[in-house]
Amino acid sequence: MSDVEDWEAELSEGEQGTDDEAEKKVDDDVEDDDEDEDEDEYVLASEDSITHRLEDAIGKDGHDDRASSSVKKLRKIKKMEVEDINDPLQKLIELLDETYIRDPMAAVPIVKENKLFLENSEEGLWRIARSWYDYATSSKGKELELLKEGQLFARRAINSNENSASAHKWYGIITGSMTDYVGLNEKLKCGEEFKEHVEIAIRLDPDDSLLSHLLGRWCFEVAGLSWIEKRACAALFGTPPEATYDDALRHLLKAEKLSPQWGLNMLFLGKAYAKLGNSSESRKWLEATIAIKEETKEDREAVEGARKLL
Q: Is 108 exposed, middle or buried (0-12, 13-18, 19+ CB in 10 A)?
C-alpha cells in the first residue's frame, strides 16, 4: 500500500467500501454543497476526512463560532488531486494559523485531532509544539509533562529543518517556560538552552518582535541574578551568563520598533529604565502601558503590573 493510501486510510477513520462507493460519496458531497452555494465547487480533500476530523474537534453544529467559519472555509477547497497530500496539509496549516490568531486555545483541539497528519512535516511539527505550549499552560498539574511533550515536537521540527526560525522559537519558548516547574540546576540549564534557541531564531528571522522581546527579558532576568545564582551558573557551565540592563533595553526597544504599543513589552521597558535609574523614561513607558486597550489577558496583566510600579 502506498504512503498516500496509508494516509487516506488513517484519516478516514475506518470508512469502508469499494472504490465506486467512495467516488459516489465524494460526488454526493459535491452535489449537496452545490445546492447550498452554486458559485462554489465543494470537493473535499481525501474523501472529506480532514473536514470531518475538524468538525469533530470543534463541534459539528458550529457552536464554537471562533472556528466554525474556518471549517466552512476548508469545505470550499477547490477540487484537488488526492495524490497531492501537500495541498490539504497547507490548507490545514492555514486554518490553524487563522484560528490561532483569533484564539490560541481554539487551535488546540484542531491540532489534537490532526496530530498524526501534522507530524508529517516540519511546518506541522512546530505548530503542534505551539499548541502543546498553550495546552500545557491551561492544564493545571500537568504543565511540565505537557511542556516536555511539546519540547519533543519542537526538537523534531528542528531535526527536520535546522533553519526553521519558528521551530527554534517554540523550542526556546517551551524550554523557558519549564523553568517555572524545575529545581535551580534544571532552571539554569533551561535558561541557557532558551537563550541559545532564541538567538538562533533571531538570526533566521530578525523581524519577529516576540523574539527580541524574549531575549530582552532574558537579559533583564540575568542582569538581576544574585551572587549565589551566579555561582550556581558558574558551577554548571564554567562561567555564569552575562547580560546587563542596557542589553535588555536594547532588545526591548527593538521589539517596540517592530511592534509599537505592545503593552507587555512597554511594561518591561519601564522596568528596564527603572533599573538603569532613569525614572522619567520609566514613568513614560509605564503610563503608556496603562493607556492601552485591555483586549486580552496579557493586556490586563501588563496594565495591572504597570499600575503597581507607579
A: buried
Residue 119 grid cell: 507530524
Per DSSP, helices labelled H in the chain are 3-11, 19-36, 49-58, 65-75, 86-102, 104-113, 115-118, 122-137, 143-160, 165-177, 184-204, 209-223, 227-237, 245-258, 263-275, 279-290, 297-309
- Copy the grid coordinates of residue 139: 492544564
Q: Are 183 and 151 in contact (CB under 8 A)?
A: no
Cβ count within 10 A of residue 235: 11
CB under 8 A, 24+ apart: contacts of 110-115: 110/54, 110/57, 110/58, 110/67, 112/57, 113/53, 113/54, 113/56, 113/57, 114/50, 114/53, 114/54, 114/57
pLDDT tens figures, 65-103? 444 444 444 444 333 333 444 578 889 999 999 999 989
The Cα 175–Cα 5 span in angstroms is 37
CB 63 within 8 A of CB 71: no
* Of 116, 117, 49, 118, residue with least CA distance to 80: 49
Q: By the 8 A CB rule, do 22 and 47 touch?
A: yes
Rounded-to-integer distance, Cα 7 and Cα 46, Å: 9
Phi, psi angle pair for 91, to nearest 5°: -65, -40
3-state SS class at 224: coil
The whole-angstrom separation of Cα 133 and Cα 46 is 29
pLDDT in tens, 195-218: 999 999 999 999 999 999 999 999
Give the Cα separation of 198 and 176 in Å (integer).
10
DSSP letter string, 79-142? P--TT-THHHHHHHHHHHHHHHHH-HHHHHHHHHHTHHHHTTSHHHHHHHHHHHHHHHHTSTT-
* Predicted TM-score (pTM) of this structure: 0.71
